[in-house]
Amino acid sequence: MLTVRFFSLIREALDCEELQVEHQETLCTVGDLKQSLVDNGGDHWREALYQPNVVHALNQRVVNTDHELKDGDEVAFFPPMTGG
Amino acid sequence: MSVLVQETPFSVDQQQSLFLASSSGAGLVTFTGYLRDFSAEGGIEALELEHYPGMTERVLEELGVAAVSRFDLRGWRIVHRYGRIGQQDPIVWVGVFADHRHEAFAGCQFIMDTLKTKAPFWKKEFMCDGRVLWVQSKSEDAEREQAWQEGVYE
């Protein structure tokens, strides 16, 4: 199982804070997971997850979309950070 | 050498006292960031800060450790709020101790400039006219963080 989390305006756009997704063999990378979410969710999800500058985190570290997934991973999608 | 991320308001004086009790050095530099009451969009009534629990603390911890290594700091402390922030409330407090002023100033600035773009916080502004706006990341913040990576300020 994969835990998928959304933050800030992406969370609001999707009206979804967290999902549990079965880790299938076809979900090799963070990018595969993202595309799968869009395929299942439709245009609304495409608009939210493919907007420019979306940040991807794997197990709470920022990664590129080609980073490989394993069962039990936590993946997060969020906009650029604005702390301080 | 510590991180505190909390929802409740904090006292700057108390944070500095705690830091002084746990660290020492010849030069102390601190920075306090408060809620600004205006933006290009108009007057701001309040701010809500969302964060990524767990990742936030780890990123800030790694940032402090990196600052020690890079600027030979003798101590550091980072305090950051999340949740609803009212007018006059401090959002962030950073303190660093070093043996020399240059390292202390640079270490504090490095932490603040990097924190703004690397720590998973997101600001939502509640405007005086009733609008609610997510704060967009600024290109100059990313440029400042990149400049530290490239050693421009040293």
Overall pLDDT metric of chain B: 95
* CATH overall fold name of chain B: Aldehyde Oxidoreductase, domain 3
The CATH class designation of chain A is Alpha Beta
Number of strands of chain A: 5
Rounded to an integer, what's the Rg of chain B over CA atoms? 16 Å
**Oligomeric state of the chains?**
heterodimer
- Please give the alpha-carbon distance between the first and last residues of chain B: 23 Å
- Total helices of chain B: the number is 4
Number of domains of chain B: 1
Helix content class of chain B: 25-40%
Basic shape of chain B: globular
What is the structure about, briefly put?
The complex is a heterodimer of chains A (84) and B (154). Chain A has three helices and five strands, in the order E-H-E-H-H-E-E-E.
Describe the structure.
The complex is a heterodimer of chains A (84) and B (154). Chain A has helices spanning 8-14, 30-41, 43-49; strands spanning 2-6, 18-21, 55-58, 61-63, 74-78. Chain A has 84 residues and is of the alpha+beta class. Chain A has a single domain, classed as Roll (Ubiquitin-like (UB roll)). In chain A, strands 2-1-5-3-4 form a 5-stranded mixed beta sheet. In chain A, helix 2 packs antiparallel against helix 3. The N and C termini of chain A lie far apart (34 Å). By secondary structure, chain B is α+β, with helices and mostly antiparallel strands. Chain B contains 4 helices and 9 strands, in the order E-H-E-E-E-H-E-E-E-H-E-E-H. Chain B has helices spanning 12-22, 55-71, 101-118, 139-149, and strands at 2-6, 27-34, 38-39, 42-51, 75-81, 83-85, 90-98, 121-127, 132-134. In chain B, helix 2 packs antiparallel against helix 3 and helix 3 crosses helix 4. The longest helix of chain B has 18 residues, at 101-118. At the A-B interface, loops of A face helix 3 and strand 8 of B.
